[in-house]
Request: fold
Amino acid sequence: MVTRLSHFFLRTLREDPADAEVTSHRLLVRAGYIRRQAPGVFAWLPLGLKVKAKIEGIIRDEMSNAGAYEVHFPALLPREPYEITGRWEEYGDGIFRLKDRKGADYLLAPTHEEVFTLLVKDLYSSYKDLPLSIYQIQDKYRDEARPRAGLLRGREFTMKDAYSFDYTDEGLDASYQAQRDAYERIFARLGLEFVIVQADAGAMGGSRSEEFLHPTAIGEDTFVRSAGGYAANVEAFTTVVPDSIPLEGLPAPVIFDSPNTPTIATLVAHSNAHLDAPADSVAGPATTGATEWSAAHTLKNVVLALTHLDGSRELVVVGIPGDRDIDDKRVEVAFAPAEVEQATEADFEKHPLLVKGYIGPWSPTGAVLGEESATGIRFLLDPRVVDGTAWITGANVDQKHVHSLVAGRDFFGDGFVEAASVRAGDPAPDGSGEVELARGMEIGHVFQLGRKYAEALGLKVLDENGKLVTVTMGSYGIGVTRILANIAELNNDAKGLIWPASVAPFDVHVVAAGRDGVVFEVAEQLSAELEASGLDVLYDDRPKVSPGVKFGDAELVGVPQIVIVGRGATDGQVELWDRRTGDREVVAVAEAIARLRA
Amino acid sequence: MVTRLSHFFLRTLREDPADAEVTSHRLLVRAGYIRRQAPGVFAWLPLGLKVKAKIEGIIRDEMSNAGAYEVHFPALLPREPYEITGRWEEYGDGIFRLKDRKGADYLLAPTHEEVFTLLVKDLYSSYKDLPLSIYQIQDKYRDEARPRAGLLRGREFTMKDAYSFDYTDEGLDASYQAQRDAYERIFARLGLEFVIVQADAGAMGGSRSEEFLHPTAIGEDTFVRSAGGYAANVEAFTTVVPDSIPLEGLPAPVIFDSPNTPTIATLVAHSNAHLDAPADSVAGPATTGATEWSAAHTLKNVVLALTHLDGSRELVVVGIPGDRDIDDKRVEVAFAPAEVEQATEADFEKHPLLVKGYIGPWSPTGAVLGEESATGIRFLLDPRVVDGTAWITGANVDQKHVHSLVAGRDFFGDGFVEAASVRAGDPAPDGSGEVELARGMEIGHVFQLGRKYAEALGLKVLDENGKLVTVTMGSYGIGVTRILANIAELNNDAKGLIWPASVAPFDVHVVAAGRDGVVFEVAEQLSAELEASGLDVLYDDRPKVSPGVKFGDAELVGVPQIVIVGRGATDGQVELWDRRTGDREVVAVAEAIARLRA
Reply:
């Protein structure tokens, strides 16, 4: 049935929504695809729902090709399974919790590992039942602190989440690869450029994890890539550890007065003014050959406060080269599931050995941080602080620093941590050259969970030898609504949206442009014939709307193929208008139909 | 792609689920369609999801034929719109409420009138935009006190809810009729018998309301119908009011001792033992000609306690003929949105004028109930208590009753109320004869809301004369998951489910029954050919499962057409098995394919 604009539920807006920060949000609202209901919560109007259904159709198709079966879980789930795996607590403020009339705890699920695991446990008992991949396309909820960018970071969003179940590691690898391949096909069909980056697997207890990032300047994720093919998000980037330096013959540490130098910049200036120029032997590899002191010669000791799941607070000092900063995302992953913040004044007051601005691992009276620490506070080092590197750093005495302080001789950490920022030019860990930084938006995630959930929830099967073995799982997510927004973000111009044919809300947009009866007669018949040949037609039959307004609406709505039925209608001619290229061509009605069908 | 049972996510169960009260629940769980997650909350397994999708497809199709457009609202909605219409309070414990991290109130919407109204208000402004009908198919939530019967009364359930918008009453009638017609087509296509009954429209402030009930013994709703075509649920049934009786010449009231007669039964026995037999003139029309006193001669005065929305408690006395009871559903509707319960001992203690067991509208010292009441408590009468009817009722004195007490002469109510039970044999209000009572399950509801929501939320449009007029609305619901359960309830036998072809999860179920290679070869090829011709095939290719188990599973799962590929395969013969009739017929493979395609 031809959809008539005179009756269709669509109103385009002239004004951008006041809260729209990004193009996709602005255009999807203006063109009548979505409408805000609450912060980060949207209603889908008919156009938006049609595009969403097409994306879901492509995903279903490729999930089926990957041998996965569709199921559907409730959004409202009881607390118990999430309690067992510890996620009820871990989610913190990030989820919506509620109670039923009897006081029982529920959540609106942000992801479904637990209940998929329990479902399979419920029904399966033998290795013969495996492998299994099942998925759902479902509305999920996260109570984002700052919902923003329209559909790109909402509090209600649609995801495809798949879960695989195997009883061997090789099986998991194969299931993982099948989903990964399906994702590549899905994004190719959606015309959505992507980079597969290594992601941190640790927080969820798994072994292998990759993200599909759509490279875009409005992306929330920073990732690094090398010309040689390495790609990872910054959380997963691992520092290349330099060789250690023989300790023999290195100069002894020297304490020096450094009044009013609580920052790296003031310390460097002071050092250049008062110390001898650096010798090759007094600094780490990164600074070899330097003729002046720089931030890279200094060791910056940052005090972080961790809040553990049990509510306890722990101070940790992280020593990183002074020319880098603590990276919030890397540090979050490094210390997960604890929450991390900068230490407060109150923390410093409780620990008088930590002399703010002059903190170091060593003091004239002994080790303040690290092995045999006087504070009892853990001291973790950047992986670049290898044995033999020498540093200018705090002397744990107000207004005093120390230089030629050598790691592995004068001080020791309690371990290493990936906390420092990654920079363009850093070497890729796989030896494929220097990395560059780029921004991307996560559109998919494949994840080898391993046995964490199966272990916690008791999902075991009998193997070939009749022995109970714990199942190993994968988890695979695609953000349906986020993909839709990304496609919109990528396919538009100043006039409006330009959908790829595979997800366009209609195949053809027919515009009756004129007031003559013949215009409407021809447009009517053309629309009917196109629809009869299997195309989905939006027909702008509004009788009293000017051609200019109709063209503007067509451009805003963004159906890729437009047909204008105007003055030429009397001669049996119409105009084919390619929304993407802007090309317009006058052809006979019959030819227009033939070309649109093709 | 042929779905292979060796790999498909399906496990049938031998045992009935312990909590299953009804057939549909028992079979849908055992046959692997659904799985319980929490009380009244289910996960959908692949088979169940396929049936659900088919039902939704039929509904979408007919909604489109009715000119309605699909949209989709979030389940998570902010409090404000529901606050404005008063429903945030009215829902009481019946909905799930929650707060976000900022403390703002949200609900999981049980129905969406408010936000549909606001959406149209947002986008529409002129009568030219109307009529409009929009709908969604969406997961809804109600915090049922006692979720039960599987999908029939769940806490999460799928509904199609449509809303119409018009600016004239005639427009609303037409929109209502279009949805009503679509419902008739939908239920016909689903093979689901239905009765359209008048429903109470009052509670939602509307004018016309009808329910589509599926007649079934496990139905929760009682409805009445007459041979002449009247049908209504008991809440909507209106009593036929008898003619009043001239007061002239009626005997005067007489107080009599009635020790130990606090119940109707004891009072009737006492009256027959101690009073003269009833004369025609001393009772209402229902009892004319009686030779003995019966419960119908008595007026039973029941004290109810209403809890109003503002929390205040009000006592009300309802006077009904003693041969009827207070009907909980009718009384609930009659006093909505107040909650109704029986008065407690504490209530009686506060009102010493109400002498329990001997309450009446009149006492020797004056009116206790009704106009000029001494108690201040409202006294509402059954519509049958018309002027001139005479009653035996309490005298407001312990151990005393009064007879020949005449309505409209000796006592007066403060109004009438439809609170008494409906009985088989009662006259239908439309004069179409006596009614009978039957049980049904609500599967659809069409409702003229009128202007209540548009008024509350300010949805107005400019009419032809440039005048702002308030829009009038309709609301139309179909319970998708409830329909599915009803179809299952209606289509089964001792062996399992038997789906109608229109909603069956697969078109054909092919069973390879045997161990010979040729059995699997023929079954394989047959399945592929059927699938290639557009049929959706479930192929039981499990290599080590006995034919008996496979047949049992086929019967349980309930695909209507089964093909058995067994010993005859060597001769190119297979067996067609009609799941519903049980008929089995041996035919050549080619003929099997031809017949299944047809």
In short: The two ends of chain A are 20 Å apart (CA to CA). The mean pLDDT of chain A is 92. The first helix of chain A runs from residue 23 to 30. Residues 518 and 570 of chain A are 6 Å apart (CA to CA).
